[in-house]
Amino acid sequence: xxxxxxxxxxxxxxxxxxxxxxxxxxxxxxxxxxxxxxxxxxxxxxxxxxxxxxxxxxxxxxxxxxxxxxxxxxxxxxxxxxxxxxxxxxxxxxxxxxxxxxxxxxxxxxxxxxxxxxxxxxxxxxxxxxxxxxxxxxxxxxxxxxxxxxxxxxxxxxxxxxxxxxxxxxxxxxxxxxxxxxxxxxxxxxxxxxxxxxxxxxxxxxxxxxxxxxxxxxxxxxxxxxxxxxxxxxxxxxxxxxxxxxxxxxxxxxxxxxxxxxxxxxxxxxxxxxxxxxxxxxxxxxxxxxxxxxxxxxxxxxxxxxxxxxxxxxxxxxxxxxxxxxxxxxxxxxxxxxxxxxxxxxxxxxxxxxxxxxxxxxxxxxxxxxxxxxxxxxxxxxxxxxxxxxxxxxxxxxxxxxxxxxxxxxxxxxxxxxxxxxxxxxxxxxxxxxxxxxxxxxxxxxxxxxxxxxxxxxxxxxxxxxxxxxxxxxxxxxxxxxxxxxxxxxxxxxxxxxxxxxxxxxxxxx
Length: 510
Hints:
The protein is α/β, with parallel strands linked by helices. It has helices at residues 40-55, 76-84, 93-101, 113-129, 150-161, 183-194, 212-215, 217-222, 253-278, 287-299, 420-423, 432-442, 451-469, 486-495, and strands at 2-5, 30-35, 65-70, 103-107, 138-143, 170-176, 202-205, 236-244, 309-314, 332-338, 348-354, 361-368, 385-391, 395-403, 411-419, 476-478.
């Protein structure tokens, strides 16, 4: 899909001084082309994100036209009808109708010049209608496509749809994960794309980097004095980064079985979060300075030990007719990653992700060491923890020990709580894709994965993944709706994590 538009600077981020490379022009046409416009990703994520940017004023009806491109032979109205059901309804009905009228559809294959010539012609006609000077237009191609077609699509764009950039215009591409299946396939894909586009033109999107609480990590760590002296191996015992879903593959079994939970969640989403938790303070907030520090974390990782990995596969997973009967693909994984540097030596980073578990959440759990000389003898109640809940019910809270109200000197565990729904009433938290699409328009690569970062991430996981693929490491069966294999809890205990029994965080009510 493509959106052609002229945009005016406005306060998506209130303090715009944070953005050293805010490259939004005051005038000029921009075309956002989403390839695979009739697919699920485009319908469920990309078009709704563009609509939300439109209704917030970042895309304006007199400046925008949206193009979709796919192989399916449908009309403009057919595509609009497919999208309509995924857009918000109610008082925005008029805005929905206006937005849908901005959409134009072009049909064509992904490896033939004919379709891309027609796409280029449609975009060029719109640019001319907006009196856009040749060379000043901007074209952003969003790949809502499987990675297998990335190389051919990149060649078609390079040959038929590039914008001349001599007057400030540009051409950028946004590619979705998975970026390969291991180090070799990732490097091959990166090389094929890199032969056609320069690194500043490539935006490897990981939607977790667009989540509100993930975006808050750098502010929390580097803008608050009381965290600075505590954020190290002297005070922190272990850090957990957790992703849990209470449903299985549900119709995606065939796709999921190709990748598994490590490739699908841990190697990208959770590892990106780990980098932000563990990195050193960057020189500035310029994207390259931040990404430099993330790469240093990855390059400091020790090889993963088999004895510090527990894999699981929920019972019933292979009942899916699209999943092979002999599948060795894990739907659950808990593993310990270790960073060999001065700050984190000896601190286990516990990564945990699974499907068909007993709850749905994603969170970061920083557990501090026991209080030395505990005169209250309250260690059995649990350690201090700082928890960042990424989803659902975004929140940050600190678990600490306090006196139980009453005449007795007894202690109890409670929390200091910042729950977003209560604290920021009436504030709509942007969806991750909204933020990241706007960043691509602004030319801000801070929240996107650089090629050397991607390579370093695959270097960490590829040996383990090959052992799983070869059947050398087997997943343990676990019941749907459980915590996962019991061996995973044993691994956490061996790594030093102390579970607080009897404590449940309850989000505050309004």
